[in-house]
Recover the amino acids of this structure.
């Protein structure tokens, strides 16, 4: 599921980015509205899939961040 979720996020981002680019090319209004609607549906579906994912991990908040342990945060 982890790969599916990130693929879905990239697809949604690409769709909405394409919408923004196509608005500058003066496409027909029905085409732009359909792209806008499709992007909003994709955002909603992406949020739903990420929140209902059954992904489990052994990590906890006590381990803090993987890239910077809590001890190193005090030095910054």
């Amino acid at each position: 599921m982890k790969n599916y979720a990130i693929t879905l996020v990239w697809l949604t981002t690409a769709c909405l980015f394409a919408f923004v680019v196509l608005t500058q090319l003066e496409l027909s209004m029905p085409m732009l509205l359909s792209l806008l609607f499709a992007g909003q549906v994709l955002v909603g579906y992406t949020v739903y899939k990420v929140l209902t994912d059954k992904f489990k991990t052994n990590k906890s908040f006590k381990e803090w961040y993987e890239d910077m342990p809590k001890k190193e945060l005090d030095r910054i």
